[in-house]
Amino acid sequence: MKTISHPLELTNQITDRGLMVFDNVSKMPIYDKPFTSPFIVICLNHQGWLKTNFDMQIVEFHAHDIAMIPPGHIILAQESSDDFHASMLIVSPHFLDKLNHSHHHFTINPLEYHYNSASHLNDKQYEGILGVFHMLKAISQLNHPDREEMLANQMELGTELIEIYLHENGIMSTQEFNASQQLLNRFLNTVVKHFRDSREVQYYAKQLCLSPKYFGSVIKQQTGIEANEWISRYVVIQAKTLLRHRKDLNIQQVSYQLGFNDPAAFTRYFKANVGLSPKEYRMQHE
Question: Which residue in 67, 75, 152, 178 has the fewest CB atoms around it within 10 Å?
Fold first, then answer.
């Protein structure tokens, strides 16, 4: 019997279509193994529950919860109830960029980092988002010259609706999404793309065309966390995942996967941030 692919594994189809909606998600692609999605994923849970690990943090996903996951972050599904049933809206970053450039009215605010955990919706809010999912699915399946224009309109409506609901539920600040918040999102997205290239604050400030001092002050003001700590957190999450779940890779190979040319430098970096050497950490989790 042929195994039915999970939506997150349909990389070619999603890339070709740009945006797809899947209504009958009853499992995650891999349990007990890490999965890094290359797509933007918005998941709406209809019933049941899923216990997962998002960037090494436990998240439980229950009925009428919504979760928004940007690309490049690690999902480790652990277990789910027998009646787990969800819908997934999956968008390729390239397609979203295309909409932003080709439709000048299209202005979706980037998803803030603190959105990444599951947020609960009341019944009215759940029905509202479900309606957006249904409309997006219908439009995405069209072969029509105005398909992208309609998707842009509906995506903008959907993300605005999500923000309104999160405001109502006290999950988001009621302040307008300002330039500092946009900078934070650009920084976090840049870390996901370039953490193998550099782990220095100056590098990311240059990528964002800002002075290191101003850049660092904005990130600290927005999050209460230094920019270099954000970088090291992400690198450490990637390192821990490889050390725990890629036993086929030795320490040297793990260091190369993470962009360290010198395994000794990786060992120093990891121990400075974790308190254990990579070998010690791996032995603790065997």
Answer: 178
Q: Of 168, 190, 216, which residue is a domain's last?
A: 168
Output the tens digit of pLDDT for each of the chain's 286 residues. Answer: 344 567 777 888 888 888 999 988 887 766 666 777 788 889 999 999 998 877 767 888 999 999 888 887 778 788 889 999 999 999 988 887 777 776 554 555 444 444 446 789 999 999 999 999 999 999 999 998 988 888 888 888 888 888 788 778 876 554 545 667 678 778 888 888 899 999 999 999 999 999 999 988 988 887 788 899 889 988 988 898 889 888 899 999 999 999 999 999 999 999 999 999 999 999 988 7
Beta bridge partners of 35: 75
Residue 61 domain boundaries:
7-168
Sheet of 57-61, strand order? 35-36, 74-80, 50-54, 57-61
87 lies in the same domain as 155: yes
Report the CATH number at residue 237: 1.10.10.60
Query: What are the start-end ranges of the H helices in the chain?
Result: 11-17, 93-102, 123-140, 147-168, 179-194, 201-207, 212-223, 227-245, 251-257, 263-274, 278-284
DSSP letter at 69 equals: E
Nearest in space to 38 (alpha carbons), one of 196, 154, 193, 240: 193
- Largest interatomic CA distance in the chain: 59
Give the strand pairing for 119-120 and 50-54. Answer: unpaired
